[in-house]
Amino acid sequence: MSDEDKSLEGWAPEISDAATLAAVVERAFDYRGDVTLDLDDGRRIVGYLFNRDRDVAEPFVQVFEPGQATPRTIPYARIRALRFTGKDTAAGNSYAAWLRLRQAAKAASGG
Amino acid sequence: MSVPVSQMWTVATYVFGQKLRGRKRYPLVLMLEPLFRCNLACAGCGKIQYPAHILKKHLTVEQCLGAVDECGAPMVSIPGGEPLMYPEIGRLVEALVARRKYVYLCTNAVLLEKKLHEGLFRPSKYLTFSIHMDGLREEHDEAVCREGVFDEAVRGIREAVRRGFRVTTNTTLFDGADPVRMRRFFDEMMDLGVEGMMVSPGYSYSKAPDQEHFLRRQRAHELFRRMLESPRRRWKFNQSPLFLQFLMGRRDFECTPWGNPTFNMFGWQRPCYLLQEGYAASFKELLEATRWESYGRRSGNDKCRDCMVHCGHEPSAVDATFGSWRGLRDTVVATVTGRL
Hints:
The complex is a heterodimer of chains A (111) and B (340).
Chain A: H1 3-6, H2 18-30, E1 35-39, E2 44-53, E3 60-64, E4 72-75, E5 79-83, H3 95-109
Antiparallel strand pairs in A: 1-2, 1-5, 2-3, 3-4
Chain B: H1 5-20, E1 29-32, H2 52-55, H3 61-71, E2 75-78, H4 89-98, E3 102-107, H5 112-117, E4 127-132, H6 137-143, H7 149-162, E5 166-173, H8 179-191, E6 196-201, H9 217-228, H10 241-247, E7 262-264, E8 267-271, E9 276-280, H11 283-289, H12 310-323, H13 325-337
Helix pairs in contact in B: 1-12, 3-4, 8-9, 10-12, 12-13
């Protein structure tokens, strides 16, 4: 399976309960692209989810939005939807992919 | 070892001070990442794989100094990203030197010659350029995924040495490394006039895209034994000799991840430089609220099973040096005789 196949880019999981939300947040924490969060008050937040903490009284995620100097902290309880909308910057950048490119370039130049 | 006496004295008194205060966990080297942006895209590095708006961000000098003061470690390593791309690197280094912190500026050296010509830095016993060099020309250029970088780095090293700066190399070794060529590499680096060299096995952290080429523990021991067996007298390592013996499988250390805490724009990284399992808002929170028992080889954590990386184990080696007369004796013997 290639790196591209494994990417979560474009994934829009259905969040039915707190357990599902927690699992999706973990995937978002590992994701190397921006995500979109829909909140309970109708607001939509787009940014890079870089932190989360479930072991506190009010579990939260932290998101850096483009152009903002400080991150936004959002309680889990306010998240209604979380989608993997940004480009996955880790996809397709494997060492194997680089070796393939390098070999192709060498072959093209007759090296 | 090639570490200057003043630096050894600073570290020794600091560690003894921590032990006298009964501190079980204390930082030795702060890993300060002012930015993630880099001018290379190495296959083994997961640090640069972020959305563009994250790569454009960087810490302010004040945020950096706040972390340095909060942490209190006597040494500060500045990796990244590429620190020479940090627009305030000159001011940051100057402020750290003024605080008498021993600074290791970890750079790929692509920009080093240019920055030296611009007069951005002044030689100081507190400032060391730690140049990323993963082997001879062929191995290094392959590791950094760009041809010509080895030669650029060599030019940077020559210029820094010529201007009287402290210069070391730092080398990460991956599966397939050739011990014979690595011994040639050590000779070549010493020929350039570097003060010392640093080596560490790479680590297969989950966000690094190159999962196949990191070293497993037994293979790592074998590689380091073959590479460092009968070390030449002229080779100098800017590292604890006990850590090098650990790499060779001659002694065992448990990881002390709090020894090299990491601070970046996301906060204090849990639990270490390599694993990204979350961020604490303060150094105090990092120390007090991280479940340290879940990390290190003895914890049974799969992610830690094969890890032998310097950022977790070199502080353990330093702690061992000052933790017993035997540790101190072994360090002195290895340092004086050059035998590992």
